[in-house]
Amino acid sequence: MISSMTGFGRGCAQTPSKRIKVEIKSLNSKQLDLSLRVPASYKEMEVALRTPIAAALERGKVEVFATVENIVPEATATVNVELLGVYKAQIEDMAARLSLPLPQDWYAVLMRMPEAMKMDVATVDEEETEAFHAACREALDALVEFRRREGRKLYGFFVEKINRIAALLKEVEPLEAERVPKIRERLEDQLSRLQSIEYDKGRLEQELIFYIEKLDVNEEKLRLATHLNYFLETLGAEDSYPESGQGKKLGFIAQEIGREINTLGSKSNHAGMQKIVVMMKDELEQIKEQVLNVL
User: Across the beta sheet with 32-37, what order do the strands follow?
Assistant: First the structure.
C-alpha cells in the first residue's frame, strides 16, 4: 500500500508554566526539504529533531512550526537601571560643560537610550525539553497517519485509472480485426485505378504483407498489459503496510505505459483506435499528476 507525501499533523504538550504546540505539514518533493521555525530558546534542539523527522518522512517539502505560550505570566525584560544611571550622569556632565539645560522629562530621554531594557535570557529546563519533544512526536505521528490515509485515497484513484486503461485496451481488439482488411482493400482499390501502370502482383503481395506487419500492434498491446499489471503490483495490497520509495518506481512504470500508448497510436492508422488512444492518454496524464504525490 502506498503512502502520500502530502499531510499535516499537530501535537500539543504542557508544563506547569507553558503550553507548547507543534505543527508539521508536508508537500511533495523529490527529496527531503526540511524547514524548522522554533522559538529562539529551542534552537539548540533542532539538530536532534531532524533525525527522527527524516527517518519517519523520508521525502517531501516539510515545514515544522512550534509556538510556546506562557500559562503563568513572567517578566521577559527588565529596566537596565545601572546603565541608565550611567547615561544620566553623562548627560548631566554634558549639560554642565556646554551650559545646556537639563531635560524636562528624564524618563522619555533615558528610555530611548540603547539597551535601556535588559532582556532576560530564557532557559529551558528538562521538563520543558521533554514536553517539546513529546509535542513533536505527536505531530509527527499525526502527519504519518495523515499520509497513510491520503495513500489509501490515491490507491483507489490509481486502481480506477489503470482498470480504465485496461478496459480501453480491450476495446482495441474488435477494431484491430477490421483494420487490416480495410487497409488492404484501400490499397488495392487505389492500385486498380492505375490501369496504365504494370506491376508484379507477387511483389505487391510481399510489400502488402511487409506494410501490414509494420502496423501490427500485438507486441505493444502485450507490453502495455504487462506494464498495467506491474503498476498494480507495485501499488501493493490495500491493507498492506505502506512501502517507501514506491512513488519514483510508479513514475517510471507510468513512463513505460505512455511509451506503449504512443506507439499504439502511431501504428493504429484507424480513427476508432486513435480515439481510444486519446482516452488512454487522458487517463495516464491524471495518473502522472498524482504519482508525484506518492512517497
Answer: 7-14, 18-27, 60-70, 32-37
What pTM was estimated for this model as a whole? 0.72
Q: Which amino acid appears at position 212 of this protein?
A: I
Quote the CA–CA distance of 250 and 196 in Å, as a whole number.
Answer: 58
Kindly calculate the radius of gyration of the chain based on its CA atoms and give it in whole angstroms. Answer: 36
Structural domains for the chain: 7-74+126-146 (3.30.230.10), 77-119 (no CATH), 149-291 (no CATH)
Q: Which amino acid belongs to residue 69? A: E
Q: Which residue has the cell 530621554?
A: 109
Residue with grid cell 501499488, as numbered in its chain: 235
Residue 203 carries which side chain, given as an amino acid letter?
R
Model pLDDT for residues 234-286, shown as the tens digit of each residue: 888 666 655 667 888 999 999 999 999 998 888 877 788 889 999 999 999 99
